[in-house]
């Protein structure tokens, strides 16, 4: 027996031994093949697929719930194996959820490749609101932004007085900076020195809007919410106005809980069970 034939014999023995080990560990569902062997899936050439599966994705809660319930009902009425419940994993941080139709259970595990996905979309109004968070604007920029989104806005002063939007916009445009200066001078034979102190403030602060109330639907399918935006004047040669959404993190947590609750309510009296978290089959 030459060297090449001996190597082929060794490969055959090794493959046989490995296959026996795989059969013992995987109940015969795994096979050992040489590297040169390619495996092709001919399902795409068949008239019908071996089994039904796919992924549905939508940004709408109503469509996600309806599709999931209808699919579960069809599976229950079919002849395929049906587990006691169908899991739906809710990811509050991403405002997303994933329902599995063939994940199976511990006794009869499935492939987990038949599923429905939902990822909520921010509304255009909410996107515009988030753009101004932790930002600084010139008078003109903020006034124009307020005019562009007047249908969502209400303004009030630091004293709680509600301003009409034309009043609030005009007040932003009219911000003026005043200064009170105190200077001292000392002269000597060989020189002089001068020091000064200046107090700079925005005039007519009691007439300026200190808060903007922005009311909108943040995500498609969620209820309208009210967001408060704090305004602060930054003095300088040209005044700037800073904007910050008050307690934004708290609002985001509340929206996540609302999303989760809407899914739980939508799947009441159905085999779909919701969990908070993610799952990778």
Which features characterize this protein?
281 residues; alpha+beta; 6-stranded antiparallel beta sheet; 5-stranded mixed beta sheet; 6 helices; 13 strands; 28% strand; elongated
Shape annotation: elongated
What is the percentage of strand-forming residues?
A: 25-35%
Radius of gyration based on Cα positions: 34 Å
Strand order of the largest sheet: 5-12-11-10-6-7
Task: Profile the largest sheet.
Answer: 6 strands, antiparallel
- Average pLDDT, rounded to a whole number, is 84
Helix content: 25-40%
Weakly predicted, low-confidence segments: 179-202
Termini separation comes to: 49 Å
- Find the count of extended strands (DSSP E, 2+ residues): 13
Structural class per helix/strand content?
alpha+beta
Short description:
By secondary structure, the protein is α+β, with helices and mostly antiparallel strands.
What would you say this structure looks like, in words?
It is built from six helices and 13 strands. About 9% of the residues have low confidence. The chain starts with a helix and ends in a 5-residue tail after the last strand. Helices cover 31% and strands 28% of the residues. By secondary structure, it is α+β, with helices and mostly antiparallel strands. It is elongated. α4 packs antiparallel against α5. The strands form three sheets. It has a six-stranded antiparallel sheet. A five-stranded mixed sheet has the order 1-4-3-2-13, with helices on one face. The protein has a two-stranded antiparallel ribbon with strand order 8-9.
Write the layout of secondary structure elements.
Elements: H1 3-26, E1 55-58, H2 61-77, E2 86-91, E3 96-100, E4 115-119, H3 124-131, E5 135-138, H4 139-148, E6 153-156, E7 162-163, H5 165-173, E8 177-187, E9 192-202, E10 211-216, E11 225-234, E12 240-245, H6 248-266, E13 272-276
Parallel strand pairs: 1-4, 2-13
Antiparallel strand pairs: 2-3, 3-4, 5-12, 6-7, 6-10, 8-9, 10-11, 11-12
